[in-house]
Specification:
By secondary structure, this protein is of the alpha/beta class. Helices cover about 35% and strands about 20% of the residues. The chain contains 25 helices and 36 strands. It binds zinc ion (ZN).
Amino acid sequence: MKQLFSIAFFFLFSLSWAQVKSPEEYLGHQVGAKITPHWKLLEYYKYVASQVPDKIKFEQYGTSVEGRPLYAFFISSEKNIARLEEIRLNNLRLAKLTEGDPTLSDMPAIVWMSNNVHGNETSSAEASMMTLYQLVNPNNAKTKAALANTLIVIDPCLNPDGTERYNNWQNGVLGTQFYPDLYAREHQEPWPGGRINHYYFDLNRDWAWQTQVESEQRLALYNKWLPHIHVDFHEQGVNSPYYFPPAAEPFHEVITPWQREFQGTIGKHNAQYFDQQGWLYFTKERFDLFYPSYGDTYPIYSGAIGMTYEKAGNGSAGLGIYTSDKDTLTLVDRALQHHASGLNVVEVVSGHADKVVAEFKKFHTDAVEGRLSSYHSYILKYEPKHELKIRALLQLLDKNKIQYYSASGAVKGLDYFSKRNESYTIKNRDVVIPGNQSKAALVRVLFEPEAKLTDSVTYDITAWSLPYVYGVPALASTGKVAKSADYKLPTVSNTVIDGFGYAFKWNGFASAQLLAALLKEKVSVKTSEIAFKLNGEEFPSGSVILMAGANKNIDFKKIVKQQADKFAVTLHPINSGIVDGAKDLGSSDVKSVKAPKVMMLAGEEQRALNVGEVWHYFDRQLEYPIVLVNPKNISRVKWDEIDVFIMPTGNYSFLKEKAQSEAFANWIRGGGKVIAIGNAVNQVSSQGWSNIKAVKQDSVAKAKESPLRAYADRERDALKEYTAGAIYKVDFDKTHPLFFGTDNYFTLKESANLFQYFTDNKGWNVGYIKENSLMSGFVGQNLSKQMKNGLVFGTESVGAGTVIYLVDNVLFRNFWESGKLLMANAVFLVN
Ligand SMILES: [Zn+2]
């Protein structure tokens, strides 16, 4: 027996010498029989690359939050790999992003495969090892032929931090065999789960916004390449079969006939293969193409065929699990199916490579010639008070390779805020974003005042038009506006001189970032609740005053200059405590801002995505400390040390416990500040000390409907009561600190949640929705009637404390720019 084993071993060993080891040989087990750790996944990729260096090149394009490397592997024929940079540049010429004439002959189709954007959907990374191996296996005639006219880019793992959170847990609870019973602990993934990244963000909602470093670094590489095909591998619930394209309605209307058609071509080919294997699947359902920040839509709006593939699985599936029809779904099978889909895509694309390249070129030719635009120009109206918001918006455009410029002349167009057509003369610092450019489709989707859905069943928000998100006045014009010059706002470099001190204006999130930085540096800071004038300059309410005399113990000038320059905030010198017009700097309306200690609960009761929004906002955007406490440990909190308690959407069971809720109420009465967001407002409203009350939903509209309805219409009927997320104009009290620095606010309403106005001086009605306030997005007809005359942002005093109610999420996916200032106001300025 021993001898036999040695002979067999020698045979295998010598075979391995002759060719690259398959993942099975390399790992020592069938792919999917165990979970491959991230380091080992990369080790296999690098091993294969080292064996066939003429066919594979790779680069580290970034690092995850927790320090894990992010890689892209480029696989093609020796000939293509030798001229990789030439292919890339030629492709950018096809995409009209670089000057020069592109060549169509000898241009390979570029297929990009993304794995594990959701870290606990682990079968795609496992499958990708088999795909990599088959792509370079000289005995595979199909892939060998495909590499001649196809360049494949594989990102083995987009979300290594989430992946390793899942892998470490899963490998830690597995023994020598798996147990397929759903109730076994290996199927009960602990909070917050591996789907999301370090800051609990869903990276498959972040492509356009790039708030997360993984997305930002990946998109920098992606936009350097702009592949023709993008495949995004996922997993869905364990009882679903396999999903592949074509996608479901609604499609955004900018999606071209070719993009629809080729999804169908690829889908048909995949269906044939799945039929042969007897594998079940569905298409055209559930996964729509509308919201621009997915791994299918973003590539589509950038000219590619973007596609989502979903195998049954995800966090609960483990190595094997019983499905409802008593089958056992194994990781081995999940990986095999994704592997099959991956190879199918390569085969179909290779079979149509010339057409794929030609259509990519056509998309971008149409784009620059204005055939993909609805409006041909978007104009951001510059005013000094909007400069910080415009700077933030330009950063987003830069990340997405969207072009903009300066121009002059008269235009007609639709004003976003008034929704009226107007004539307008373009001014010196206005920004013009041409609708006709390489990224025309993306520009249209991000800027269109009202996006048109071909169908209204979508499971994500339906409005994100950037002038509303940033609160920047803008115009959408069907006229073309020619470029007069590159657009550039001057770099801010403050001159600091000895004197009384400095003031800076409060008019954007950057003002709040500067305030947070100064507080961290122990700078003594004051803010004025009323507007004032200094040397002819107007300072709006909330503006910050820094007195030299109060900051003698620190390197005041150096700190102030460094930080103000960093955030591009202009410092204005103050010569004396006397100001023109309003009250002087010694007035009681000028208040010291203390550095508050901020806390939030983060644990199984909370919704990880919402905890993540607040955590990332403080840690990486405001760059201000926040203590995260597990709800289990709330009895250990030293409330007298806490100044601000933030309650994102989640469940707060301590409010129902007598001792804990009393300690909490006493803390508020003693001067504590609560910021309740989303459904936390509803929970707080049930406390005895709270005076806020939800608006009762109107049942009249519903009752008037005919009781006779068709069963098949049930999904569409339900829509009448539904919004996935639409933009409403908020009317607000400009004198209240919650809205300092804001002159337009548009809120994302994800539900019908509205509250009654405070009466009898019980609280402040700060932001509210009046009638006809819907600006953009889909709202069901019944719900739409109810969405009026209600409070969305309010405050009330409880003893010496303050409760701030943010009924709508102001930090949505951390890209709702104007909401970030609102949150900073709540933390620092509202008292
Ligand atoms: Zn997924």
